[in-house]
Specification:
Blueprint: H1 11-24, H2 29-40, H3 44-50, H4 59-64, E1 79-80, E2 83-84, H5 91-107, H6 112-115
Helix pairs in contact: 1-5, 2-5
Protein name: DUF2200 domain-containing protein
Pfam family, one: DUF2200
Length: 123
């Protein structure tokens, strides 16, 4: 089964959409970067390389090669584009939507401390 066409979109082409959305709402590129680093484990230098115009690393590669996906991302809930995160079956699409949800929350003015979830204490 072929993957969704968004999987082949270059991350460097999508990144300006994230920053523009945040900046229109008074947030900063630095905050967008902070959330991406929190989610993926990339360093700022690695992210800077990935967002360089012309870099062809697509979303599938971006998430596959992420140094350490944050386990706290499982605490991200709700809907993105009318689709509940809990109902997304494709693992890559779920990662993409997690990032979308973080950027949505940032643009809605949510505090960074609330956006960056923490892992629940072990039972």
């Amino acid at each position: 089964m072929a993957g969704h066409r968004i999987f082949k979109l270059a991350f460097s082409e999508l990144y300006p959409n994230y920053t523009n959305k945040a900046e229109r709402k008074g947030r900063t590129k630095a905050e967008v970067d902070e959330l991406i680093l929190w989610l993926t484990g990339y360093s700022q230098a690695q992210l800077d390389e990935l967002i360089t115009p012309g870099n062809e690393v697509n979303l599938e590669e971006f998430f596959r090669d992420a140094p350490k996906m944050n386990p706290a991302r499982a605490a991200i809930t709700g809907s993105v584009c009318g689709v509940k995160l809990a109902e997304i079956e494709d693992p890559l699409m779920l990662e993409i939507r997690y990032l979308d949800k973080l950027i949505d929350e940032l643009a809605k003015g949510k505090a960074m401390e609330k956006i960056r979830r923490t892992l629940p204490a072990p039972a």
